[in-house]
Amino acid sequence: MPTHDPSVSTSLRIIPRDQHPISRRGISPNALRVLYRLHEAGHRACLVGGAVRDLLAGQAPKDFDVATDATPEEVKHLFRNCRLIGRRFRLAHVVFGREIIEVATFRANVDDGSGDRQVHDDGRLLRDNVYGTIEDDAVRRDFTANALYYDIADFSVRDYVGGFDDVSHRVMRLIGDPETRYREDPVRMLRAVRLSAKLGFNIAPGSAEPLPRLAPLLSEAAPARLFEECLKLFLSGHAVASFEGLERHGLLAALFPESAAALDANRSGALRRMLVEGLRGTDRRVAADEPVSPAFLFAVLLWPAYCRALMALQAQGLHTVEAERRAADRVTLHQLNTIALPRRFSLPMQEIWLMQSRFSQRQRKRVVRTLSHPRFRAAFDFLVLRRAASPAHEDDIAFWQEAQGNPDAAIAHHPAAEGGEEAEVPRKRRRRRRRSHAAGE
Ligand code: ATP
Ligand code: MG
Q: In this structure, are residues 385 and 300 in contact, taking their beta carbons and an 8 Å threshold?
C-alpha cells in the first residue's frame, strides 16, 4: 500500500528504452558501475533527479545521483570506496577519485509512524528520515521533471507524476499543491527559477502564481543555504536568465532588498543595464571555462544598493571618502540578514567598490600604487562594466588600459584628470586610502 501523501495522485508510466533518448553513453561510467553493482546484488537501482532530467532535455548532467531500495549500510557493504554521510538523512557516497556518486535509499514524505519526520509549525520540513517505496520517493521530490527514474534493470524511464511529458513540453511543475510545497521549503521558489533558467523551461502557471506572494518566506530560509543557492543561480552560466526570472516572479527583492529598491528608484535604468552587463560577462566566462569569483559577482549584484547608500550618506553632508566607506559597510551588513556572504568574499567586494574612485587620480605615484593593488584587475574590470551605465567612464578606461602597459605614456596622453573639477580629489583620497584597508570592520 502506498504511504505517500494522498493529495498527490500518481500513476506509473513506463517509457521503454526505444521511446526515450537516454543512452548509457551519456551516463558517467562510474554511475553505471554503481547501478550495475547494486542491480547484480539484487537491489533496485535507478539514476534519478537532475541527471535524468538533463539527459532528457538534451543537456550534459553535472552530476549523477542514484536511488535504490538498498539501505545505506547495504550500499556500504557493496562498495569499498563508500562513506556514509548526513545526519538529517543518511546517504552513501561512492567515491571514484574526484567523482562522487551519491546513492540515496528511497524515502517517503509522510510520517507513517516508522520514521522520524518533523514538521515545523509553519509547515517547514525539518527532518525526513523515513524510508519508502520508489513511488514515495518520487512524490517527495520538488518538480515533476526531477522525479524521473532511469531503471538499470531494463533501461526504461519510470514516471509517477507526469514528469516525462513536462520535460517534453519544457515545463517546471511542482509536485502536489504548489503553495504547500513552497511553504515546506521556500528555497524551492529559487530552484523553480534557477532550473527553468538553466534549461530554458517555463514555470507552470500554477507553480508560478504563488511566487510573488510567498517571496517573503525566503527570509526564513537559512542565510548560508541562500548563499549557496545564489552561487548556483549566478555562477552556472545562466546568470542573466536567472536574474530576469527572479525579477519576473517577484523574488529579487526577497534576496537583495536594497539592490531591488535601488533598481526600482533608478528611472534611467542605468544601474540595471550595468548589472545585466556584469551578469552577461559572468555567463561568457563560464561558457569559456574561465574562473568566476563570488566577490566580483556580489560587487555587481549589490552595486545598486551601494550607489544608493552612498548618495544618501553624501546628501547627509558626509565627506565622500567617509561616505564610501560607510556605504560599503552598511550594504554588506544589511545584506547579511538574508544571504550569508562570507567575509573572504565581502572584503574583496568592498575593495572593488572603494577602488572605483581611485581611477580618477592620475598623479604618477598614485597611478603606480593603484596598478600594484592586488584588487586592481577586478576593480578595473568593474570600471569597464560601468561603461554600460554611463559613457563618462570612457576616458578613465582608456587611461588605465594604457597605464597597465606604460603608466608614463598614459599620464602624458591623458593630462585631463589633474586640475579642473578633480582638483580637490587628491586631498580626500589620501585619507581614504589609509582607511580603505580597514573597510569592512
Ligand atoms: P542541479 O544539480 O542541476 O542543480 P538537481 O535537480 O540535480 O539540479 P540537486 O540539488 O542536485 O538538484 O538535487 C537532486 C534532486 O533532489 C532533485 O532533482 C530533486 O529530485 C531532489 N531535490 C533537491 N532539492 C529538493 C527540495 N528542496 N525539495 C524536494 N526535492 C529536492
Ligand atoms: Mg544535481
A: yes
Q: Identify the three-state secondary structure at position 285.
A: helix
Residue 21 buriedness (CB in 10 A; 0-12 / 13-18 / 19+): exposed
pLDDT of residue 110: 58
How much is the pLDDT for 264? Answer: 97
8 A C-beta contact, residue 242 and residue 190: no
Q: Are strands 45-48 and 202-203 parallel, antiparallel or unpaired?
A: unpaired
Of the candidates 175, 114, 116, 117, the one whose C-alpha atom is nearest the C-alpha of residue 144 is 175
**For residue 9, what pLDDT is reported?**
83
The ligand minimizing its distance to the Cα of 233 is 1
Residue 171: strand, helix, or coil: strand
Intervals of the chain under pLDDT 70 = 1-7, 110-129, 415-441
For 417, the 3-state DSSP assignment is helix
**CA 388 – CA 269 distance, rounded (Å):** 10
- The identity of residue 333, as a single letter, is L
Q: Which residues pair with 243 in a beta bridge?
A: none
Pick the residue whose CA is nearest to atom 8 on ligand 1: 50
- Write the CB contacts of 86 (distance below 8 Å, at least 6 apart in sequence): none
Residue among 71, 78, 8, 84 nearest 40 (CA): 78
The DSSP 8-state label assigned to residue 207 in this structure reads H
pLDDT number for residue 276: 97
Domains belonging to the chain, first-starting first, are: 13-176 (3.30.460.10), 224-413 (1.10.3090.10)
Which one-letter DSSP state was computed for residue 88? Answer: S
Contact indicator for 82, 94 with CB cutoff of 8 Å: yes
Nearest atom within ligand 1 for CA of residue 232: 4
Is 166 annotated as catalytic?
no
Q: Which residues line ligand 1 (CB under 6 A)?
A: 49-50, 62, 65, 141-142, 146-147, 185, 187-188, 232
Q: In whole angstroms, what separates CA 311 from the centre of its chain?
A: 29
User: Helices (H), strands (E): how many in the chain?
Assistant: 22, 12
Asked if residue 147 lies in contact with residue 167, where contact means CB atoms within 8 angstroms, the answer is no
